[in-house]
Q: What sequence folds into this?
């Protein structure tokens, strides 16, 4: 029973997150896609573009700090792989370049993004080749549990940050409302006193 449970969890844990997108890129235009990646997460991409004479497409992958993670010019079909040591947002941009005096047409771009986690080396696993099958499954299950725990901790941290931001925003809105009401009350009082003084000068009221 335990072995079956381990095998099921191992299979589920080894399944990477996979999604694809297909779009048309206008001549001499660029299209960028952004997505988040967790620490030590491996991003694998596979692209394919339609062939149009006189037109080329380049791609570049950058992180939020502008560092180039992957880049290639005049692409047709290929793959790329990169990872980050910390939580990061990456951006992949496709740029169309059309020759001068060339009537441009839309090019179809197909992109498949696959997310997974980097496998630990055999040294980190303590000579995994010497482990028994059950011990290897337990070790893989332990690594999977650590990844799941890391995900929960990251979600909890982001939830805490969102809650703190929400509370700060509510506090600022409250202070702004009190300030606005004070200004309105002060302005109304000034108007009443001003009109009273004006009417008294004009001898409209005593």
A:
């Amino acid at each position: 029973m335990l072995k079956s449970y381990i095998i099921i969890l191992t299979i589920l844990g080894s399944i990477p997150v996979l999604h694809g997108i297909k779009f048309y890129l206008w001549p001499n235009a660029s299209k960028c896609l952004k997505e988040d990646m967790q620490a030590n997460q491996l991003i694998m991409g596979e692209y394919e573009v339609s062939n149009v004479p006189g037109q080329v497409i380049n791609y570049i992958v950058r992180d939020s700090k502008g560092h180039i993670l992957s880049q290639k010019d005049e692409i047709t079909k290929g793959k790329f792989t990169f990872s980050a040591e910390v939580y990061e947002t990456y951006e992949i941009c496709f740029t169309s370049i059309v020759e001068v005096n060339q009537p441009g047409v839309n090019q179809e771009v197909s992109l498949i993004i696959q997310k997974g986690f980097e496998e630990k080396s055999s040294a980190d696993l303590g000579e995994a080749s010497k482990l028994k099958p059950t011990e290897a499954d337990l070790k893989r299950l332990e690594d999977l549990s650590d990844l799941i725990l890391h995900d929960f901790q990251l979600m909890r941290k982001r939830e805490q940050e969102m809650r703190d931001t929400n509370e700060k925003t509510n506090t600022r809105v409250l202070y702004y409302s009190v300030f606005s009401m004070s200004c309105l009350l002060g302005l109304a009082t000034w108007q009443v006193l001003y009109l009273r003084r004006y009417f008294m000068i004009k001898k409209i009221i005593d």
Observations:
- Strands lie at 17-25, 30-37, 41-49, 55-63, 68-72, 77-83, 88-98, 107-117.
- Confidence is low (pLDDT under 50) at residues 1-16, 118-127.
- The longest helix spans residues 133-201.
